[in-house]
Amino acid sequence: MSQLQSYLSGTWVSGTGPGTALVNPMTDDTLATADSEGLDLGAALEHARTKGGSALRSMTFAERGAALKALSGAIHEHREALIDIGIANAGNTRGDAKFDIDGATGTLAAYAHFAKSLPEGRGFLSDGDTIQLSRSPHFQGQHVCVPRHGVAVHINAFNFPAWGMMEKAACALLAGMPILEKPGTPTAMMAERIAHIIVESGILPEGSFSFLVGGPADLLDHVSAQDCVAFTGSSGTAKLLRAHHAFVERGARLNAEADSLNAAVLGPDVNDDCDAFDMFLREMSREMTQKAGQKCTAVRRILVPEGKLEEVGEALVDALARVRVGDPAESETRMGPLTNAAQLKSVREGLEKLQPVTKVLCGGDTSPFDRGPFQMPTLLQAETGEAAPVHADEVFGPVATLVPYDGSVNHAAQLVSSGGGGLLATLYSDDRKFSTELALALAPWSGRVYMGSSKVAEHGMGPGLVLPSMTHGGPGRAGGGEELGGVRGLQFYMQRTALQGFRTLINTAFAAPPAP
Fold this sequence. Notes:
The chain has about 525 residues and is of the alpha/beta class. It has 14 helices and 22 strands.
């Protein structure tokens, strides 16, 4: 058993408390402990601001992009060892671990590519065109975005210890802000190994990367006005964060990605003999079972026209039955256990809340395994589309509910919006009018709308894949935050300022360079 370490103020340090145990979910053996007790987090943030911030701001976008590309390569060299950690500490299948790690290195590589489109020799961005501000053309204005003089504090969830960490890091580092990464504790072994790879590589300047394992302790008490906090986790924790004086009184920035009752809608035109239906079954089965359903983008509500409910239910039950569940270390396994016993308890409690208004089509609260926190793929069917608990309670596991709707755009949009806002809404239809109207009706309640059809059945990458070129986040219940989206992802870490002055000065020093 090892004790995970934090990297703060340029030094690897260990907490002084007993720590939290990280376990192998298959055996319940303790693999490591993580602890933050006794660590000087105020000094760590100040070191990052003074050392890392100034070093990153002295680099051009091209130089920062080159560093991201090098980081991607350095992490990829350790891919096999990281996969083994994901299997042991998170209960990931090999495929799930690869999904996490490749997502991390792919996002770093993508942002290295985005850097090529940014102005050469500069560390700031021009936002829009110059604007004439008076009758005379001599007085003009220009908006610019510059790196904030603080630290980007990233509080990540347990389900994607690699990808979740690096998708935030890529944006902040390219923007020119130093980062402090705090992974979700139950699966922090992979994140800590990546932290060692980053530090040992020597790619980033001193102070630009910090890492904290264990609880957050008094971290937020040291967050200042120029700092940014990006959080992924529960809506309950997001609520506590929003009330903290770092944001209320000092005005630090907060980006939150919280709960999400993501919905998929099967169009009334889709029958079982078309490619769109095959796409629907394939992707719904994968979204329910990948990472054992422990994904913020997993589909929780599947809206089906009332007359097709039985047919669709039977087809999806058959598809789920073909997913081999078992020991994640075995190559044939396609879904492993939940991360730990606490997650299983949470899933079972969630199923109890849904039980009064649903019936079980497959799965449920039993397991054929005598060890490990296994939740079999569980498909429920709601009694009515308006069954309130289905639109209120997220079960963070391989669980989804079939929800009947009358086949209209209005009813589908009404039911999806009952979830209070989500990261993702998915629709499957070959009817252009239905797809267009529904996509626009879902947009106010969704960070992303994925439109499946027979035309893209062989090309769509699945709704659960978060692409670095597209925004990730969602309104309302989903936290109201936004990440990624290509260069858009840098905006959270930069200050937009309106500069006003003499035309020649504005145009020569601050205006956007001409397109090549």
